[in-house]
Amino acid sequence: MADNENAGSEEQQLPQEECQQSEPMEVESNSQAVPSDGNKEEESSQMDVCNEARGQVLNEAEQKSEEKMDEAVEGGMQQGAGEGGMQQGAGEGGMQQGAGEGGNQQVQQEEPKQDESQKLDESEDNKTESKDAEDKKDPDADKKDEQDGEKEEDTDKNDETAAGGQKDDSKLSLSESEVKKEHDVYEMAKLKRELERNRTFTFPTSLEDFGYAFNDDGELRNIDSGEKFEFFAKKDDHLYNQKRYEAIGEIITEIVYQKLEKEVHLDKHVVPTDATKEEPQTFIFMSKDALSNPDKVMVLIHGSGVVRAGQWARSLIINKNMDCGTQIPYIKRAMQEGYGVIVLNSNDNYVSKGERIPIRENGNAENHTRYVWDNFVMKSKAKHIAIVAHSYGEIGRASCRERV
Known about the structure:
Strand 1 (212-214) and strand 2 (220-222) form a beta hairpin. Helix 4 (91-97) packs across helix 5 (101-135) and helix 12 packs across helix 13. This protein is of the alpha/beta class. The protein is elongated, with a radius of gyration of 59 Å. The protein has a five-stranded mixed sheet, sandwiched between helices. A two-stranded antiparallel sheet has the order 1-2. It has helices at 2-33, 40-79, 83-88, 91-97, 101-135, 139-197, 207-210, 238-262, 314-319, 322-325, 328-336, 365-375, 393-402; strands at 212-214, 220-222, 267-271, 282-286, 296-301, 340-343, 350-352, 356-358, 384-389. The chain contains 13 helices and nine strands.
């Protein structure tokens, strides 16, 4: 628009400059050609010549101004990014109107657009004001609407509850027989479990009679096939399979006891030390120098469960090998390093004679560990005591530290 205004101002100035250049010519021609008495015909002809010259000058000025306006409009279109700029400049018609008097019309055409934008702004302001008015409405009215809504919801819930209550009543009357049936099923299952527990089995007393034996690598294998131990001897009788596994475990316990005495040459010592032959008792294993070694002694404590002296885990003995599941490798290494060795038997706490009879002062793992500590370990001459405890055996180790 600034280019159009400059072009318009040049259009108005150029004719004046040309006229100023032509007027001295008329004056000079008038002063030379016109007589003092004022011949009218010559004066008229001279005026016609002047007017023609002025018209030519004006035409040339208009052509130049149009060319400059075209150049200004084209420059504006390039700055307006091509066709989009031309559309914003009202197209080709806008370019034609941009020359001369059309430039003024284009300025006038843009004013309605500004009016439309002002109207849009006013409409947005009106919407904002109406929204603010809604926000500022009476808060009590909002609370009232919310309370009415809550009342309606409560009414609906009460209706649903009432309907549901009727359905529940009908279900209660139907479910009494179902509850009784489920109770009967539970009682039958309970009775079946009791009968299962009371089942008695007779199993062999040696591994060979079970068809198994340890090979030279300490692995339990089937004598005929050489396969590993198979737990599922009977696929549909879990109780039988479990009892069979426990019976084999008891045989393995006796085998480990024998190895402690024959393979690593430990001695068995009765606990309690003053127990009579008639009363329940257990035992531990010690090396011959356990109490006399002046330097160091090692105490081995297994975890809880069915494991006994010399074992870490019965399942490892059965499914892996003797070295994985027993304390024998520890005992051998300790002896090689110059340790005296004491092996506890903290899970052997009672004897069964129709009922469980606890062993005096050794009725549980903690009591057994304390008894052995007080009556054996503390009587040792060793300056250094090493304790190796597995799993729950850590509890016994901790109780021993309290007594040092």
